[in-house]
User: Which sequence fits this backbone?
């Protein structure tokens, strides 16, 4: 089943209060690294899978992309995207990313930010993406890191004084569903090993260009309380590949 | 400083009693996966960095490799290698792997099994390896997984009943020295993030062919007590790249 948690009003309200929802890319800890691995966007056709508020679509429009399609399963997300991040060459489309149907070789770039860990069948998605990408085109995505998704709690282990002791890893090779708490709600995510992420891409003939576990920027480390703890565990994984 | 722990008699004795020392490749949990990512060895020239007992060198000789050079920092290791795993086309050489000096483009394959986590400067080593590899040549290596080296203890967190609770990750982005207990002795290893392993290879113009976190084979899972716990954490990382 394709979960559409973001159309749940309570969840959506909480999500809308996160810094990255209110302030966009600059408030996202991984943006500095993600921006660095993006190819040139000028005159490129771009598909954003799980576009949410459309911050990345708008960024691409500002960088001179020729055509941008943002896809998201949540109508609430896309209402906000249309309101906050519209442009003449951005079109937002409401569907699950597994259901996309586009002509072969119709995009220069397929992009996805922190959405693919909601997808059950990564191989199915990658085969679709490969088909709709032009030769030499790029697929760039961020997901929650396998270290972050393995255990399921997505929470630190604390000591008796309430201080962080370490981050737990467990059931690493048992891939699949994890019911985890995000913004006070139970959300279903899918844990995959790093091996699976990379070997599915390689076996679908993608060439690996970058694999980066982003650290928060110097700015965020200095300005956001507790951000330094993010140097103790990898939380996200950014992968860019080329067809 | 290049540590040469294996020439310490007490440590070496304990190492010699490990299943992989006594019985060779078939007793190494990762061998099944490692063998699968190896290129054809027939008529190839091969350099094995940190060759230890020489099990992989002998394997390559049996597979028809034309020339095999095994390098190790420990004279004790190489004594055993000469005794157990010699062949007319294998030569063993005692030196630290950072100190290798070979002609440019003189090897088809550079290989290293569970030794590179003892090396401080990975980038320096990779540049050397790139130079001595022929065009189209392969570099294949296994190391302890960054998840396994980050915290430093390399041990599970147990509950009050002495059962495994989970595996700890900490200080992931703080790379460098870890003093860890191996066979009852303090051994110095170097923690590196996955990002560093892969980005150093990519920035040195290697093409990534395989990235695999090996699971123990079905046989070992069924026959060795406790081996199933190794499905709860990734312990090793195997990477193969091409020049």
Assistant:
């Amino acid at each position: 089943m394709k979960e559409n948690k973001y159309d749940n009003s309570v969840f959506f309200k909480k999500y809308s209060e996160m810094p990255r929802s209110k302030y966009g890319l600059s408030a996202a800890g991984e943006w500095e690294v993600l921006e660095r691995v993006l190819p040139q966007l000028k005159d490129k056709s771009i598909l954003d899978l799980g576009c949410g508020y459309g911050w990345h679509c708008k960024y691409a429009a500002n960088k001179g992309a020729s055509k941008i399609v943002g896809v998201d399963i949540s109508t609430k997300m896309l209402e906000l995207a249309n309101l906050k991040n519209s442009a003449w060459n951005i079109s937002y489309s409401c569907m699950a990313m597994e259901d996309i149907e586009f002509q072969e070789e119709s995009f220069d770039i397929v992009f996805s930010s922190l959405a693919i860990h909601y997808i059950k069948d990564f191989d199915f998605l990658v085969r679709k993406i490969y088909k709709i990408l032009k030769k030499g085109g790029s697929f760039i995505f961020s997901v929650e890191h396998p270290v972050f998704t393995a255990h399921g709690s997505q929470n630190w282990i604390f000591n008796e004084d309430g201080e962080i002791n370490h981050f737990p890893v467990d059931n690493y090779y048992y891939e699949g569903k994890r019911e985890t708490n995000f913004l006070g709600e139970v959300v279903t995510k899918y844990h995959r090993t790093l091996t699976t992420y990379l070997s599915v891409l390689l076996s679908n003939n993608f060439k690996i260009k970058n694999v980066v576990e982003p650290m928060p920027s110097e700015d965020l480390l200095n300005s956001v309380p507790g951000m330094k703890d993010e140097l103790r565990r990898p939380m996200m994984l950014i992968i860019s590949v080329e067809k």
The radius of gyration of chain A is 18 Å. Residues 145 and 235 of chain A are 5 Å apart (CA to CA). Residues 122-132 of chain A form the longest helix (11 residues). Residues 5-242 of chain A form a domain with the Rossmann fold fold (CATH 3.40.50.150).
